[in-house]
Each structure stands twice: as structure tokens, then as C-alpha cells.
Amino acid sequence: MGEQFQGASGRIFEESFNDALSSRYLAYALSTITQRALPDARDGLKPVHRRLLYAMRLLKLDPESAFKKCSAASPIRSTRRLMSEPVVKPL
After folding, report:
1. What is the pLDDT of residue 36?
2. Is residue 90 part of a domain?
3. Is the residue at 86 inside a domain?
4. What digits encode the pLDDT tens for the residues 1-60?
5. 80 confidence band (pLDDT: 50, 70, 90)
6. Residue-wise DSSP of 14-39
7. Sign of the dihedral defined by the CA atoms of residues 33, 35, 41, 43, in that order
8. Cα–Cα distance between 38 and 45 in angstroms, integer?
9. Most buried of 50, 54, 71, 81, CB within 10 angstroms?
10. Residue 89 — pLDDT band, cuts 50, 70, 90?
11. Which pairs count as long-range contacts for 81-90, CB under 8 Å and 24+ apart, including other chains?
């Protein structure tokens, strides 16, 4: 870290852009990997898979229940919309 200045909202440190970016990106990348990409050691599931199984359980979509049409699974997709998909689909 470089010089320290007293700003209106607290201390301000002078730091090179490359140093600041590399340290902050490293912290973001590590938190993303540990929270999203790595499976949990307890059950081997990633958070996205755990959310899907929980939503399927709420809708009673399990192997012991009766057969249901695939349109019954649409509430799961409506609550977990991908960012690339439009909110309203054209007809």
C-alpha cells in the first residue's frame, strides 16, 4: 500500500490499479469457486442442484409419486430464470 490520506468518509489509500484489481479479483474468484462451483463434501451436490431438488420436492416430483407431464415442472423453471432468457416468451 502507498500513502494514506484522510478523506470525508474515512481513510483513503493510494494503490496502483493493477495491485488493487489483482487482489480484489482473486478474492472474488476464490469466493465464487468455493460457494458455487465446488460440490459440498456432505452430499456431493452443488448449490444449483440442491435448489432444483428442493423445488422438485415441494412439487412432489419424486420417484415414488405418479407419472406427471413435463409441463408440471415448469414452476421450477419460472422461479429459476436464466439471465439470458427473456422474462416473457413470444408466442
Report:
1. 82
2. no
3. no
4. 556 666 667 777 788 888 888 888 888 888 888 888 888 888 888 888 888 888 888 878
5. low
6. ---HHHHHHHHHHHHHHHHIIIIISP
7. negative
8. 8
9. 50
10. low
11. none
Residue 56 neighbours by CB under 8 Å, 6+ apart: 62, 73, 76
36 part of a folded domain: yes
Decide the pairing of beta strands 10-13 and 4-7.
Answer: antiparallel
**Could you count the other beta carbons within 10 Å of the beta carbon of residue 49?**
13
Cα–Cα dist 16/45, whole Å: 40
Q: State the total domains in the chain.
A: 1
Residue 80: which of 39, 34, 49 has the closest Cα? 49
Q: Is residue 54 part of a domain?
A: yes
Helix (H, G, I), strand (E, B) or coil at 47: helix
In this predicted structure, the answer to whether residue 70 has a pLDDT above a threshold of 60 is yes
| Residue 20 structural domain | 4-79
